[in-house]
Amino acid sequence: MSRAEIFEEIMLPHLDAAHNLARWLTHNDQDAQDVVQEAYLRAFRFFDGFRGGGDGKAWLLEIVRNTCRTLQRREGRAAGAVPFDEAAHSGGTADPGAEEKVARQEKIGILRHCIELLPVEFREVLVLRELEEMAYREIAEVTGLAIGTVMSRLSRARKRLEDCAARRKEAAQ
Where in the sequence is the domain holding 135, given as residue range(s)? Predict the structure, then answer.
């Protein structure tokens, strides 16, 4: 099997996770696509340094995270400066009753908005744990943090998310 075939087998299954993380960190679908493309190029270039372990997801997402940070520094903008386009990223499911659908969309909108308001260090651990379902150890690998720090940031992110959602719900009533 060639190097390219091995790379594809190990890294391509994580394309959606890479794009999801990049989209949450850049707040822009086009930038996320650029980040993922650049991250995959970097991952391929340095694939000889990949030591295995797991399925490669943590290694790839660490590259995505670092690529996002590089893009943001290069463009001189803070993470979170561009609003998230909720309409472009909301998914559809089975068609519940109209009232249920509106209530569900409202809850999703509140959560998305509150996630967007989180500082990037909280948002990234929340996205990796809750949306990508990564273990604390894997998040620690991706972020370069100690597991205790990951757990602390995740706890604080959840608390901030809960508080924000409660305030938004109260304001809507």
Answer: 96-173
